[in-house]
Each structure stands twice: as structure tokens, then as C-alpha cells.
Specification:
Blueprint: E1 2-7, H1 11-22, E2 27-31, E3 42-45, E4 48-51, E5 58-60, H2 63-69, E6 83-86, E7 89-92, H3 97-104, H4 109-123, H5 131-156, E8 186-188, H6 194-201, E9 206-209, H7 217-221, E10 224-229, H8 233-236, E11 246-256, E12 266-269, E13 278-281, E14 299-308, E15 317-318, H9 322-336, E16 341-343, H10 355-369
Parallel strand pairs: 1-2, 1-10, 2-9, 6-12, 10-16
Antiparallel strand pairs: 3-4, 5-8, 6-7, 11-14, 11-15, 12-13, 13-14
Helix pairs in contact: 1-10, 4-5
The structure holds uridine-5'-diphosphate.
């Protein structure tokens, strides 16, 4: 009998397990996959840490979270500066003076501001009601048409008119020459990879891989006083109220006999005709160097395709539209009645979570219960 059975060895599960163990509780972590680290799992291919479930760049303003994770890893100084490729025209991201200069040939913030104001006025937007209106009011129609519309519609499989403004608010808009994608105080990628970091978090904790909680729930429930469940909330309740919808992502990975394919970690393809949303060249998260500081002669790239999720696919992005949010709220009520179970993380709380928010939530829930 354990104090805690933790279902899922991703960031939420690993944080909770680590804190519980440190406070003297007995803990068993299980995961149905054959590896730890959930979607931040990284795997070495050709001496490059490949982000197997998509690029993860850690960024946070939360010092407690940063200090906590820094006990298990050292973050390098990687700064995310994606490049947008629109039919061969390259633009800087996030939207900043470099983007405005390339788009309109303007030089000063005042000129950029004026241009955006004109375009917003012409589009007749006062109170933005959807992502399209929000985007135009932030950066004008030209940038919306070339850098936002196609990318967003490929990523979400829906028209920008049907999507909430909140999605685009994740991105900073700057009237300075600054290509840093995030405004966070702390940013980087764990040296040696995310898997190594999570391994350290789970150090000394019993972990069983290939154990599927939902396949034999009553048996697993009998193993511990409390369950920490980090899987999909609808699956926990056997989809009794219906299935929540997600976007899933498919990656086409390729090992290349070149040492530099695209010159940047992330290149977004923002037109609607290119079928993938972005190409990740993993070595650049660690400056093209191996763990001994040597140049790596090859490269690994992943083309990322966004698709509608169906049963059996990996759930990635929750679709927090009205219909799904209402359904989630009903599951949340059911979850609150499960006295023995703590529901935490992206899938159990059906939220578009950044990594730091997941860790912060695990710390806060742990403090609440233990
Ligand atoms: N976005 C965009 N063009 C880009 C990059 C991002 O329009 O080149 C918008 C788009 O609406 C997207 C959102 O910003 O859904 C968040 O994108 P990001 O790539 O940051 O999401 P991630 O998948 O990394 O969480």
C-alpha cells in the first residue's frame, strides 16, 4: 500500500511525486507509455536531443518554479526566435519592428503604429470578438493575412472567425527591435534534455512503465490511499458524458546528412498551402553542439502536421471552445466527487498549459493536500 499512486510520469506527475517523496510519503508512479517525461520526453538521435512530442522551450516569470526545476537541471540560454516563412518571404517573430520593417519598409515605431492603426480602422474593428478581429487590431491586415491566418487555420483546423481571441494573445507584439518570442524572465532548454531532468525528479521513486491505469482501475486503486490522475479527464469517466475534442500533431522526422538545414530551431510555414505548420531543427536548441561541446555533423528535423484528434490518437491541444468548455465543466463536477483522486495537468484539467504553469499547479496542489 502506497500513500500515492501517480498516474502519468509527465511534468505534473513527476513534480507531485518528487515533492511527496521528499516529504516522506511512499509513492508509486505508473505510465502507460514505455518512457517517462510525458510530452516533454526527449530522445537522443545522432547525438541530438530530439523533442519527440514537439518543441518545448521552457519559459517562466515564476521564480519558485524556475528554482525548483533548477535543482534537477541547468537551463541553457536558448532564446526562442522563430522565423516565419510565407511563400519564401522570411519574417521575424514575434511581431516586432523587424517584422514591420520587412512587411512595410518602415523604420520607426511611430510609422508602424500608424500603419496598424490605419489597417485596423479600414477593417472597422472596435471590440474584437474573435481571433481574426483580435489579430487585425493588434498588427493590421497585412500581417494577419501573411503570418497569422494560414498558420492558425492549419494549427486549429477552424476559421479564425470561429476561434477565441485568447489564442493570439499568447504572442507578444513589440514596437522594439526584439525577436525574443517570450517576455519571460527565465527561458531555456535543459542541458542534456528534458528526459534527464525528469529522471532526476523521479530519482529514488518506484516507476512502472507500460502500466495502463484505466485498463485495471480497481486493481490500481487498491494500491494506494490517494490517486493522482494526469490522464484525460473524459477517459477517466469512460467518456460517459461524451468525448472532449483535441488537436493532435503528427511529426515526420528525418535525419539529414547536413550540419545545418534551416539555420534556426523553429521555422513556421504560415501559408495555407504548405501542409505542415512548422519545421523544427532540434540541434539548434543546444546551439548545434553535443554534450562535449563538439559540432554535430548531422541534423534531425521534424515537420509538424496538425490534425483533428480521433480515438486512439495522442491528445495534444485541448479545444477550449464553448462546447468543449461546457462539457469539461460537467466532467469537472464529476471529478470533484472523486474524493480519493487528485486531477492535475493538461489532460486532466483540459487546459492549454505552458510547462511552468503545470509545475506551478503541481506544487500548489501538493501544498494543498500534503
Ligand atoms: N501564430 C501565428 N503565426 C505564427 C505563430 C503563431 O498566427 O507564425 C499564432 C497562432 O494563432 C497560434 C498561436 O499564435 O495558434 C500560438 O502559436 P505557438 O506557435 O506559440 O503555439 P505553440 O504550439 O507553440 O503552443
Amino acid at each position: 500500500m502506497y500513500d500515492y499512486l501517480i498516474v502519468g510520469a509527465g511534468l505534473f506527475g513527476a513534480t507531485f511525486a518528487n515533492l511527496a517523496k521528499a516529504s516522506g510519503k511512499s509513492v508509486l508512479v505508473i505510465d502507460k507509455r514505455d518512457h517517462i517525461a510525458g510530452n516533454v520526453y526527449s530522445k537522443k538521435i545522432e547525438n541530438i536531443n530530439v523533442h519527440v512530442y514537439g518543441a518545448h522551450i521552457f519559459h517562466t516569470n515564476n521564480k519558485e518554479v524556475f528554482d525548483y526545476l533548477s535543482k534537477f537541471t541547468t537551463f541553457n540560454r536558448f532564446t526562442n526566435s522563430p522565423v516565419a516563412n510565407f511563400k519564401g518571404e522570411l519574417y521575424s517573430l514575434p511581431f516586432n519592428m523587424y517584422t514591420f520593417n520587412k512587411m512595410w519598409g518602415i523604420i520607426t515605431p511611430e510609422e508602424a503604429f500608424k500603419k496598424i492603426k490605419e489597417q485596423k480602422k479600414k477593417a472597422g474593428i472596435v471590440n474584437p470578438k474573435n481571433l481574426e478581429e483580435q489579430a487585425i487590431s493588434l498588427v493590421g491586415t497585412d500581417i494577419y493575412e501573411k503570418l497569422i491566418k494560414g498558420y492558425t487555420e492549419k494549427q486549429w483546423g477552424r476559421s479564425c472567425k470561429e476561434l477565441p481571441p485568447s489564442i493570439i494573445k499568447r504572442l507578444p507584439v513589440r514596437f522594439t527591435y526584439d525577436n525574443n518570442y517570450f517576455n519571460a524572465l527565465y527561458q531555456g532548454v535543459p542541458i542534456g534534455g528534458y528526459t534527464k531532468m525528469v529522471e532526476k525528479m523521479l530519482d529514488g521513486i518506484e516507476v512502472r512503465l507500460g502500466w495502463d491505469y484505466l485498463k485495471d482501475k480497481s486493481y490500481y486503486d487498491s494500491l494506494a490511499d490517494r490517486i493522482v490522475y494526469t490522464g484525460p479527464v473524459d477517459a477517466y469517466f469512460n467518456f460517459s458524458l461524451g468525448a472532449l475534442e483535441y488537436r493532435t500533431v503528427r511529426f515526420e522526422n528525418e535525419v539529414l546528412e547536413t550540419d545545418n538545414y534551416q539555420g534556426n530551431a523553429v521555422v513556421n510555414y504560415t501559408d495555407i498551402d504548405t501542409p505542415f505548420t512548422r519545421i523544427i531543427e532540434h540541434k539548434w536548441f543546444e546551439f548545434g553542439l553535443d554534450e562535449n561541446g563538439n559540432d554535430i555533423p548531422k541534423s534531425v528535423v521534424s515537420r509538424e502536421y496538425s490534425q483533428e484528434w480521433k480515438q486512439g490518437d495522442e491528445p495534444y491541444y485541448p479545444l477550449n471552445d464553448t462546447k468543449n468548455s461546457e462539457l469539461y465543466n460537467k466532467y469537472k463536477e464529476l471529478a470533484s466527487l472523486e474524493e480519493k483522486v487528485i486531477f492535475g495537468g493538461r489532460l486532466a484539467q483540459y487546459r492549454y498549459f505552458d510547462m511552468d504553469a503545470v509545475v506551478a499547479q503541481a506544487i500548489s496542489i501538493f501544498k494543498q493536500y500534503c
